[in-house]
C-alpha cells in the first residue's frame, strides 16, 4: 500500500468507528468535505465535526473502501460500499459510490463525491430517505 492508500484507509476506519478526532488528525486545517446527507460542502475541521455530529444523530452510515486508484492531478479515486441505516437499523441505502480525495502535504485536503453531478444541489441519493 502507498502512503496515500494507508492514509485513506485510516480515515475510513476512524469514520466507521465514529472517531472524529482520529479522522480529523488525518486532514489539513482547511479541508473541504461534501455534506452528503444535507447537500453543499463544509470547510475546515470544526465544520466537519459539526456536520458529522448532525449526520450521526440522524443516520448510521458505514463505508468500506473496495478499490483505490490514483488519478491525474494528485487525486485518488476510491470506490466504496456505502451502507446507510436509520438509527432504528432499517437499511436506507446499500450501494457502491465513488469518493475522490485530494492529498496535500501528506494529509487529506479535500473529498468530493465522484458519482453525483452536483453535490451542492442537495443531499446524496443515499440520504434521500430521512428518518
From TrEMBL:
Residues 9-110 form the SnoaL-like domain. It holds the Pfam family SnoaL_2. It comes from the Bacteria. This is SnoaL-like domain-containing protein.
